[in-house]
Amino acid sequence: MYLSSPSGIISVTELNRQARQLLEGAFPVLWVAGEISGFKRYDSGHCYFTLKDAGAQVRCVMFRNRAALLDFAPREGTRVEARAVVSLYEARGDFQLTIEALRPAGLGALFEAFERLKRKLETEGLFSPARKRPLPTFPRAIGIVTSPAAAALRDVLTTLRRRMPGQPVILYPTAVQGADAAQQIAQAIRTAGERGEVDTLIVCRGGGSIEDLWSFNEEIVARAIAASPIPVVSGIGHETDFTIADFVADLRAPTPTAAAELATPDRNALLARLEHLRHRLDNTMTRQLQRHMQRLDLAARRLQHPGERLARQRERLVLLTQRLHAAPRRQLETRRLKLDQVALRLTQRRPDTTPLFARQDAWRIRLAGALPRQLENQRHRLTTLAARLHAHDPQSPLQRGYALVTHADGTLLHSASDAHCGEEITVHFAGDSLKARVLAPR
């Protein structure tokens, strides 16, 4: 629904704005197939062209940030698939497509097939690092699976001659592009494995479009590489190109030249290493000889006539004998001196006992006088306590005619109310007691 002014009349600008909004809201981002016509890339980086088919055409614009992501050069007549937003250029009222992505026609299906096969083989474990084999350090012969007319073959041979002249190389010729290329590549890999002539196999070809490299994305080639008894190095296309063969190979190189470098040792580096080791060996041998010569000189200096050695031993024996005779005397004198020092120290540290004995006599005199007094005091205190104890003796009142009355269990009756009618009680006198029965408590 477009918006109108109060008068029912809108401007051209407003009309085009509403038309653009309506188009962009009505159509989702979609893929459009067609043929490029009138392609132009301006200094600003923006690209303008027409996309057409047999029945119609539409203007297209691809802005700089999106055009910079193109991995191919669009040309007149190229059939492409464009991911586009349907829009309208308001300034001229032109219906157009704003292109988000662009690819050659048919690549969508190829990419889907590539991803589908990649997932399948990865699930089977063909890409697992655990099954990758190391390349031999010094291969006895190197096999190359490629086309005899391919530029990649020349690059590989040139690199091999540079790095390791005289390295045996066997070519297993095959087509690397075309309808039957995949079958031929797989057969060449199997042939190399059956003959057993080489111990490193390079599968390579030069760069190209995804269609040109498609033979190396076929399942038959991937399974032939996986089944190869020989370690395989893949060098297919340029550094940014990846194929299924790269994932299955034991080692992937970014280019055919790099594959040749990975498959062979560098002769110059080996010679430099050998020269370095030779210098180290020379230096080590020189040091060993010098060390042994020094030991020989030292041994020669130590070598003496037996008579000289016996004379020196005799002198040493005399000296030891003298020391042996003198040692007891020195030891005895040392012990005597030490004993005198200890005796002197004991004498100096002996305490003066005269005041102690005087204090002992004084305490003895005081003790002799204090003991009778202490005994008299204790005797007097004992007499006093005996009198007090006799005064509190429960038998004393009985001597004066009083009596104690107890229950049958021996507890005292303090009053007549403690007795019960018919209860047997005991009456205690000074010398004896009698039993009685309560007739009636008072």
Task: Provide structural commentary.
- It is a single chain.
- The protein contains 12 helices and 13 strands.
- The chain is α/β, with parallel strands linked by helices and 442 residues long.
- The strands form 3 sheets. Strands 1-2-3-5-4 form a 5-stranded mixed barrel. Strands 7-6-8-9-10 form a 5-stranded parallel β-sheet. A 3-stranded antiparallel β-sheet has the order 11-12-13, with no helix packed on it.
- The termini are far apart.
Number of domains: 4
The topology string of helices and strands comes to HEEEHEEHEHEHEHEHEHHHHHEEE
CATH topology of the largest domain: Rossmann fold
The fraction of residues in strands falls at 15-25%
Just name the CATH architecture of the largest domain.
3-Layer(aba) Sandwich
Total E-strand runs: 13
Largest sheet: 5 strands, mixed, barrel
What would CATH call the class of the largest domain?
Alpha Beta
Subunit structure: Heterooligomer composed of large and small subunits.
GO biological process, one term: DNA catabolic process
Enzyme class: hydrolase
InterPro entries: Exonuc_VII_L, Exonuc_VII_lsu_C, OB-fold_nuc-bd_dom
Write a brief caption for the model.
Bidirectionally degrades single-stranded DNA into large acid-insoluble oligonucleotides, which are then degraded further into small acid-soluble oligonucleotides. The chain is α/β, with parallel strands linked by helices. It is 48% helix and 19% strand.
State the main characteristics.
442 residues; alpha/beta; OB fold (Dihydrolipoamide Acetyltransferase, E2P); Rossmann fold; 5-stranded mixed barrel; exonuclease; exodeoxyribonuclease VII activity
